[in-house]
Amino acid sequence: MKKIPTLATASFVFGAIAFGSFSVAMAEPVAQNNEIKAKYNFTYSKDMQKKIDDRYGNREKETLEDLIIKETYPLVGKDAAKIDVEIVDATANRPTFEEMGKVGGLSFQSFGIGGANLKGTLYDNSGKVIKTVDYQYYSTMDPMTRYKWTWDDAEYAFENFAKKLANK
Fold first, then answer.
1. Model's pTM, two decimal places?
2. Which of 32, 83, 98, 114 to pair with 125, CA 20 to 30 A apart?
3. Residues 93, 13 share a domain
4. Which pLDDT belongs to residue 10?
5. How many Cβ atoms from other residues are within 10 Å of residue 99's Cβ?
6. Cα 108 from Cα 1, distance rounded (Å)
7. Number of domains in the chain
8. Do the strands 21-24 and 2-5 form a parallel or antiparallel pair, or are they unpaired?
């Protein structure tokens, strides 16, 4: 059980100040479970690895992997012994911290079309392929694009990739 100060919670939720503390049971994110992470084998296309090295930064690799696990594990993770995922491409809707430091003229107000291209393979306990999926999604520039978070459209692609893996 984690303790959350009432002051921080009340300030965030209500914009008011209160004193004291209370306990809230908080679930650990799925992607932080090492046993679950061990089922996944992530690879990156050469172009995507170059994009990470040159623009996004290595911190974003973990973010992308955690998002994929978050979307796929509840649908297929319990049924598969191993899951291979190749991130062929992922494009952010907003600049990452490292990208803003490397590319002049970018800010948190910058935004654009995002999405992802993924390939995945599920294996059973004997190593037999259960299913192979290729999926890509890139958004269009709509009026809501400026309200999206950094990996919003990529996360949408990950969600639909997971549904294809699970036949949903």
1. 0.77
2. 32
3. no
4. 34
5. 19
6. 34
7. 2
8. antiparallel
